[in-house]
């Protein structure tokens, strides 16, 4: 949770106005004075005033490109009277980005970094009565262009030199993101009034002596204080740890006092400690032993007890307080040479974790719009998909405490990239000083979070230098390697020594080994999407896949809300603007036609591409899970989107789940049964990532498409917890007599897997014959579907009926005579005929059988 303090804090969010400065500003806006929302941004203020169109819609992105090329000024007035405090500081939690701050006409700060907090002493500038505060923002586009000349060209992807400014890289556009270079006071601003001493930084590290509940724990807190009087007298730093809580705690003070939501168990008595700081001194180390602790575990491995920690500084009375929550656990990221290359695996409390991951990008192009409830909704979807790890990608931001709080509570492991992505970066001043300042700021801020298990130096930059032709373009200039191999690991060791650090993603574990070597460490696999095909995932045996992905369109309701093209086609103007990938539509088509025919109707195209995206990712993950423990994780690109766009996301820019999210739910399940080719033969891989043994009878059956049994065998399997067993399928079952008209089915308890010998388009898949009925439920309705023929990938695209409705499952394959029920959650009655229409109740059969005719 966000640290809080008892001294006087006054938010300054009211009365702000916005006006344009220099730049290509339309005449009707140049003279306007607009009411401004703080926290906020120029774009959203102009949008609220009706002065610009919504850049998320149609081709409006182009119509507002001038905003990022203009200067802007925010101003407000506030009243102040002397209050007897020794010091008064203006605190800006986030300024985006090139800002000059003035108080009563005097410049008090010049900032050049979106990723830092700023505290400015203003005692000599404050006035009794009315005070005027202004923040002038220079054009981020022009500043980045000028700095790229000043610092010297360094390679980067996309069209702007985002690597010359410390600002979210994807804010200048990405292959899934719109170009809306923002300015604004994007985080809170406040006036702090204090006396005596305040807590300048608090860095707690929770360690544990063992990896079982009841082990002894220790919290070591490194504290730095600031004194109103540099020669001030002695102070006392005190810390207290309350009983562990499970889930959200509304008031950390109550939790420390033992009156908040807590759980029984080790550590319930709490613990305290204190240390004296001599006159004039500003640093101290506080140690608080905890006799018995309950361990924090990733989701699926145990509970997530979080201990409230409160730290105070006092003279004759408490002058400042800081509070957060901690989890006791051990964590390591192991990159160890072995006979197969170099491993990459997360180990928590001594337990290896198969990472069922997804990459996380900013959830909105306008970052201030992402609040705690929105984070919670997105993490609900991550949990639905059985995700246990999120990687915060380095082209975005250091994520908020709200994000990490929620991951702490849910047991979702997180890794945070430092903010370098797909580019070379100057290692000289002034950039170097900004990098160090932002790293210190954010490591100190985020280190209390139990879910955070890895700091990572960059995204693809070392790989880029090695393989993308950067060396000759750089002509000997620095490009960031000194950050990744020296500055960043030194800062992590100094500030957060208990956490792992890797220099980059991908990373082989050794600077002398190619960064994206498949057999070493973490890899990014993009050749299959860009040039090859997704069945090729089964030809790659990586140790850990940190990025791979397949594009698909946004949900139908999102597309039709955001794009008004008439006719709406994959290549109509609005659709093309909402496809940012290079040759994206061609790659979608190339990735489809080897498996399914290319439809001519837009809704059929939408379904075909959505199905292909889900299928491609399921192929990769299910195969790599079958390689465990040689392979120890996948981090799919990507969980979420920041606007309505065709992209690799499982959840689109409106927050609607695409079929891919349901594919992830299936292949990231604790217990997965899958049929895979291993060394030229088919096997049934039984993957048991649960806490209990999986002992069942495995039934392997080859069927005709009419449901008839052609061959069958039963095998007893006993798979211990957290392990994988690979069962060869006898040739009599695995060898079809008619590849186009037969399939394999594997059943183990309630789990089912299928293997088709021929691609969709080359098979004898006939039109689906279905019967369905809809019944009302307290939360919506239930749609029960019975198959009378083989039905592949039965999916209810319920957003076409109600954009806010949610369905329990998708992508269900049924043999003749089998039945499935979809639970639909909706706040309004839904029309049964519409729900079961062929445009909503979709199958792969529609795409194949209709084309065959």
UniProtKB/TrEMBL annotation:
Glycoside hydrolase family 2 immunoglobulin-like beta-sandwich domain ranges (all copies): 218-329
GO term, biological process aspect, one: glycoprotein catabolic process
One example GO MF annotation: beta-mannosidase activity
Key words, A-Z: Glycosidase, Hydrolase
Enzyme class: hydrolase
Beta-mannosidase-like galactose-binding domain segment(s): 25-187
Coiled coil (residue ranges): none
Record's catalysed reaction(s): Hydrolysis of terminal, non-reducing beta-D-mannose residues in beta-D-mannosides
Entry-linked Gene3D superfamilies: Galactose-binding domain-like (2.60.120.260), Glycosidases (3.20.20.80), Immunoglobulins (2.60.40.10)
InterPro entries the UniProt entry points to: Beta-gal/glucu_dom_sf (IPR036156), Beta-mannosidase-like_N2 (IPR054593), Beta-mannosidase_GH2 (IPR050887), Galactose-bd-like_sf (IPR008979), GH (IPR017853), Ig-like_fold (IPR013783), Ig-like_GH2 (IPR006102)
This protein's record includes keyword Hydrolase: yes
EC number annotated for this UniProt entry: 3.2.1.25
Residue ranges crossing the lipid bilayer per the database entry: none
Protein family per UniProt: Belongs to the glycosyl hydrolase 2 family.
Name of the featured protein: beta-mannosidase
């Amino acid at each position: 949770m966000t640290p809080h303090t008892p001294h006087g804090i006054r938010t300054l969010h009211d009365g702000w106005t916005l006006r344009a400065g220099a730049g290509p500003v339309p005449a009707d806006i140049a003279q306007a004075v607009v009411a401004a929302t703080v926290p906020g941004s120029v774009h959203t203020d102009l949008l609220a005033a009706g002065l610009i169109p919504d850049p998320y819609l149609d081709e409006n992105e182009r119509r507002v490109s001038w905003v990022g090329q203009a200067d802007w000024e925010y101003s407000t007035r506030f009243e102040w009277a002397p209050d007897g405090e020794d010091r008064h500081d203006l605190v800006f939690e986030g300024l985006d980005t090139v800002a000059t701050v003035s108080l009563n006409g005097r410049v008090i700060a010049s900032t050049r970094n979106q990723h830092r907090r700023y505290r400015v002493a203003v005692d000599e500038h404050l006035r009794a009565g009315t005070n005027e505060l202004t923040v002038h923002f220079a054009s981020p586009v022009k500043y980045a262009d000028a700095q790229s000349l000043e610092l010297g060209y360094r390679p980067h992807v996309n069209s702007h030199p985002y690597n010359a400014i410390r600002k979210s890289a994807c804010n200048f556009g990405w292959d899934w993101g719109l170009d809306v270079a923002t300015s604004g006071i994007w985080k809170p601003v406040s006036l702090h009034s204090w006396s005596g001493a305040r807590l300048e930084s608090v860095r707690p590290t929770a360690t544990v002596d063992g990896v079982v509940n009841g082990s002894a724990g220790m919290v070591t807190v490194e504290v730095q204080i600031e004194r109103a009087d540099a020669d001030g007298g002695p102070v006392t730093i005190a810390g207290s740890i309350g009983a562990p809580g499970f889930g959200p705690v509304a008031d950390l003070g109550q939790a420390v006092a033992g009156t908040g939501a807590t759980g029984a168990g080790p550590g319930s008595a709490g613990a305290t400690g204190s240390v004296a700081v001599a006159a004039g001194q500003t640093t101290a180390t506080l140690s608080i032993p905890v006799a018995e602790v309950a361990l924090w575990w990733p989701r699926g491995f145990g509970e997530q007890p979080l201990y409230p920690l409160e730290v105070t500084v006092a003279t004759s009375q408490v002058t400042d307080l800081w509070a957060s929550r901690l989890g006791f656990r051990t964590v390591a990221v192991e990159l160890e040479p072995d006979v197969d290359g170099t491993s990459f695996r997360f180990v928590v409390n001594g337990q290896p974790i198969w990472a069922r991951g997804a990459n996380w990008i900013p959830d909105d192009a306008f970052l201030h719009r992402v609040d705690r409830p929105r984070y919670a909704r997105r993490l609900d979807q991550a949990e639905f998909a059985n995700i246990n790890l999120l990687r915060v990608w380095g082209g975005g931001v250091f994520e908020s405490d709200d994000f990490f709080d929620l991951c702490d509570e849910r047991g979702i492991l997180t890794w945070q990239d430092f903010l370098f992505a797909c580019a070379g970066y100057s290692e000289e001043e002034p950039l170097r000083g900004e990098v160090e300042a932002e790293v210190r700021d954010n490591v100190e801020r985020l280190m209390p979070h139990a879910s955070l298990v890895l700091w990572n130096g960059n995204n693809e930059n070392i790989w880029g230098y090695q393989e993308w032709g950067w060396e000759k373009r750089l002509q000997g200039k620095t490009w960031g390697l000194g950050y990744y191999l020296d500055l960043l690991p030194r800062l992590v060791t100094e500030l957060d020594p208990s956490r792992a650090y890797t220099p980059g993603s991908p990373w082989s574990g050794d600077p002398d080994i190619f960064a994206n070597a498949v057999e070493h460490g973490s890899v990014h696999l993009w050749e299959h999407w860009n040039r090859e095909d997704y069945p090729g995932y089964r030809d790659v045996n990586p140790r850990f896949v940190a990025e791979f992905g397949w594009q698909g369109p946004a949900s139908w309701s999102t597309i039709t809300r955001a794009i008004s093209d008439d006719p709406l086609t994959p290549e109509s103007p609005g659709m093309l603007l909402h496809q940012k990938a290079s040759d994206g539509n061609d790659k979608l088509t190339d990735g489809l036609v080897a498996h399914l025919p290319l439809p001519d109707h837009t809704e059929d195209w939408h379904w075909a591409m959505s199905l292909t995206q889900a299928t491609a990712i399921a192929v990769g993950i299910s195969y790599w899970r079958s390689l465990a423990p040689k392979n120890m994780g996948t981090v799919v690109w990507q969980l979420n989107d920041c606007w309505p766009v065709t992209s690799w996301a499982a959840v689109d820019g409106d927050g609607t789940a695409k079929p891919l999210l349901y594919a992830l739910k299936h292949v990231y399940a604790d217990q997965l049964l899958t049929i895979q080719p291993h060394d030229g033969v088919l096997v049934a891989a039984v993957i048991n990532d649960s806490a209990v043994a999986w002992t069942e009878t495995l039934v392997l059956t080859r069927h005709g498409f009419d449901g008839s049994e052609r061959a069958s065998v039963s095998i007893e399997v006993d798979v211990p917890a957290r392990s994988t067993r690979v069962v060869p399928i006898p040739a009599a079952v695995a060898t079809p007599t008619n590849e186009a008209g037969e399939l394999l089915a594997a059943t183990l308890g309630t789990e089912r897997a299928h293997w088709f010998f021929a691609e969709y388009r080359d098979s004898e898949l006939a039109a689906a014959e279905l019967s369905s009925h809809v019944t009302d439920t307290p939360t919506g309705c239930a749609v029960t579907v019975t198959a009378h023929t083989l039905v592949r990938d039965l999916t209810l695209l319920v957003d076409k009926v109600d954009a806010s409705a949610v369905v329990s499952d998708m992508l269900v394959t049924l043999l003749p005579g089998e039945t499935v029920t979809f639970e639909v959650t909706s706040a309004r009655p839904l029309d049964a005929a519409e729900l079961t229409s062929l445009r909503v109740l979709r199958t792969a059969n529609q795409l194949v059988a209709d084309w065959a005719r």
